[in-house]
Amino acid sequence: MPNRRFADGEVVMGRWPGSVLYYEVQVTSYNDVSHLYTVKYKDGTELELKESDIRSQSSFKHRKSQSSSSSPSRRSTSRSRSRSPGRPAKGRRRSSSQSREHKDDKKKIIQETSLAVPVLVLFKQSENNTRRYNGEPESTERNDTSCKIVEQKLKPDLEIQRVLEQYSLRPRKEEKKKEEIYSEKKIFETIKTIEKVSSKTKELEFGGRIGTLMLMFLLPATVFYLLLMCKQDDPSLMNFPPPLPALESLWESRVFGIFLLWFFLQALFYLLPIGKVVEGLPLSNGRKLQYRINGFYAFVLTAAAIGTLLYFQFELHYLYDHFMQFAVSAAAFSVVLSIYLYIRSLKAPEEELAPGGNSGYFVYDFFTGHELNPRIGNFDLKYFCELRPGLIGWVVINLAMLLAEMKIHNQSVPSLSMILVNSFQLLYVVDALWNEEAVLTTMDITHDGFGFMLAFGDLVWVPFVYSLQAFYLVGHPTAISWPVAAAITILNCIGYYIFRSANSQKNSFRRNPSDPKLAYLKFIPTATGKGLLVTGWWGFVRHPNYLGDIIMALAWSLPCGFNHILPYFYVIYFICLLVHREARDEHHCKQKYGLAWERYCQRVPYRIFPYIY
């Protein structure tokens, strides 16, 4: 292992990327693999620097003191005391060649300064962009201050340049204007190039290009495997592979037409001018998108439409009879939608691309999503698919399974197991739609682009995998007693209480940390201006909302009994998903909060499961 020059906690001088300026920083950590130091600036910014970009304070001050006698400021002061062009020479006159060299040096300094200042501003702006993506507010006061600094830095240089041009023999004004335009173009081209390089996605998730390519085939295969297994009399994992149906039986034009009708009906409900309009988090360019919060109204209108169909004797169990065809139709639609999203993202401006889906690799960007917020006018495609067709469709599918169970088994009322599954999952969906505004701060909206991953997840995975327990109970009815049902209900209520109270606690603290109702909460201040809660649910484990999610998922599966592990696939999947998200959150928070996050981890050692993980 190579030796380190600088220890953790040591205060040194670090070079700001893209400039020759050094600032006082503190070393926070060292990566033995990349050989990069993580340093923290006084304003809280954390960057990774090479060892060659870091100097000790003693050597820096020593070098500065040696060169202080010939510093640019002193040279400019001494030269300002010499004769001006309007006064006669005193003493020995300079030669014409020395004068030209002196003026050329000054012009060179001006050009270097004019190039360095915009580049420095660019890196500061990229830092602000990162903070916007992380959900951090960026005050306009900070932007105004940076603009004033740039003006103050450029003003004396422009004055010197004007004086030099006034007393030097130069081409005509037209040529000077052309030269200025060319210089400005060169500066902006340099800034644009640096901006493109800095906005590229460097850390690839899901196994990179190979992993995302495999997932594009593995996810649909998993959905179809689960649905085929649920149809078997003995859905044991030992009965692999299940008998495959004929390919022509998987597609039906009528089913695809019904799916399109459902999708566009939800789009119509989304466009209705009902519900309040709120602003999302700031984008990289400072703009805030507007969102209409009417998901709960769309759910009520959908319930009214379904009730009308049932009143006119429409057989809703048609969904159960053609469940595989509906899944194939949804998968085909999600692929077409993903292709459209990627093609349109190629024309999107750089600042509208997703920070997590701008790697430059086609497969990876197609899977994760290249554009952050694709919109057709005011119609936000990602936000619409996040809660509407799939989530509300999940409830409709559960209801169809309940009616199918009653018809197939000649029951006048549904089974107790089916009632529990429908009730628990209905509560979860209604809660999500009632608290729709909270989804605007999630990583799906603020960080992830809209590509195959979210399109397939929202339109296929959520409605057809999350309804797996209800689909399983139709073909494999399970009888449970009332005491068992009561115990499962209590378990679900505990999970829901943890999930909802933890999220409400966090959202209230984010909106107004100084609220007197939250005075009992303690927190660790961070350099970003936010606080990390160390009491309440967030002092119990680092991700209490994930703990509530897992408890609820277990309660949804228990009514299916223990004859087969298939109904518990959702629990296993949910644990894996949340552990992955938790690892991503850990990495994200460590970069965002630095030493404050390390103190928080020491204070709250357990991530999801208390005393276990």
UniProtKB/TrEMBL annotation:
<keyword id="KW-0753">Steroid metabolism</keyword>
<keyword id="KW-1133">Transmembrane helix</keyword>
<feature type="compositionally biased region" description="Basic residues">
    <location>
        <begin position="76"/>
        <end position="95"/>
    </location>
</feature>
<dbReference type="GO" id="GO:0005637">
    <property type="term" value="C:nuclear inner membrane"/>
</dbReference>
<feature type="domain" description="Tudor">
    <location>
        <begin position="4"/>
        <end position="62"/>
    </location>
</feature>
<keyword id="KW-0812">Transmembrane</keyword>
<feature type="transmembrane region" description="Helical">
    <location>
        <begin position="454"/>
        <end position="474"/>
    </location>
</feature>
<feature type="transmembrane region" description="Helical">
    <location>
        <begin position="480"/>
        <end position="499"/>
    </location>
</feature>
<keyword id="KW-0256">Endoplasmic reticulum</keyword>
<keyword id="KW-0444">Lipid biosynthesis</keyword>
<keyword id="KW-0597">Phosphoprotein</keyword>
<feature type="transmembrane region" description="Helical">
    <location>
        <begin position="206"/>
        <end position="228"/>
    </location>
</feature>
<keyword id="KW-0675">Receptor</keyword>
<dbReference type="InterPro" id="IPR002999">
    <property type="entry name" value="Tudor"/>
</dbReference>
<keyword id="KW-0752">Steroid biosynthesis</keyword>
<protein>
    <recommendedName>
        <fullName>Delta(14)-sterol reductase LBR</fullName>
        <ecNumber>1.3.1.70</ecNumber>
    </recommendedName>
</protein>
<feature type="transmembrane region" description="Helical">
    <location>
        <begin position="255"/>
        <end position="274"/>
    </location>
</feature>
<keyword id="KW-0443">Lipid metabolism</keyword>
<comment type="pathway">
    <text>Steroid biosynthesis; cholesterol biosynthesis.</text>
</comment>
<keyword id="KW-0539">Nucleus</keyword>
<feature type="compositionally biased region" description="Basic and acidic residues">
    <location>
        <begin position="99"/>
        <end position="109"/>
    </location>
</feature>
<dbReference type="InterPro" id="IPR001171">
    <property type="entry name" value="ERG24_DHCR-like"/>
</dbReference>
<dbReference type="GO" id="GO:0003677">
    <property type="term" value="F:DNA binding"/>
</dbReference>
<keyword id="KW-0152">Cholesterol biosynthesis</keyword>
<keyword id="KW-0756">Sterol biosynthesis</keyword>
<feature type="transmembrane region" description="Helical">
    <location>
        <begin position="326"/>
        <end position="343"/>
    </location>
</feature>
<keyword id="KW-1207">Sterol metabolism</keyword>
<comment type="similarity">
    <text>Belongs to the ERG4/ERG24 family.</text>
</comment>
<keyword id="KW-0153">Cholesterol metabolism</keyword>
<dbReference type="GO" id="GO:0050613">
    <property type="term" value="F:Delta14-sterol reductase activity"/>
</dbReference>
<dbReference type="Pfam" id="PF09465">
    <property type="entry name" value="LBR_tudor"/>
</dbReference>
<dbReference type="GO" id="GO:0005789">
    <property type="term" value="C:endoplasmic reticulum membrane"/>
</dbReference>
<dbReference type="Pfam" id="PF01222">
    <property type="entry name" value="ERG4_ERG24"/>
</dbReference>
<keyword id="KW-0963">Cytoplasm</keyword>
<keyword id="KW-0472">Membrane</keyword>
<feature type="transmembrane region" description="Helical">
    <location>
        <begin position="520"/>
        <end position="541"/>
    </location>
</feature>
<feature type="compositionally biased region" description="Low complexity">
    <location>
        <begin position="66"/>
        <end position="75"/>
    </location>
</feature>
<dbReference type="GO" id="GO:0006695">
    <property type="term" value="P:cholesterol biosynthetic process"/>
</dbReference>
<keyword id="KW-0238">DNA-binding</keyword>
<keyword id="KW-0560">Oxidoreductase</keyword>
<feature type="region of interest" description="Disordered">
    <location>
        <begin position="52"/>
        <end position="109"/>
    </location>
</feature>
<feature type="transmembrane region" description="Helical">
    <location>
        <begin position="295"/>
        <end position="314"/>
    </location>
</feature>
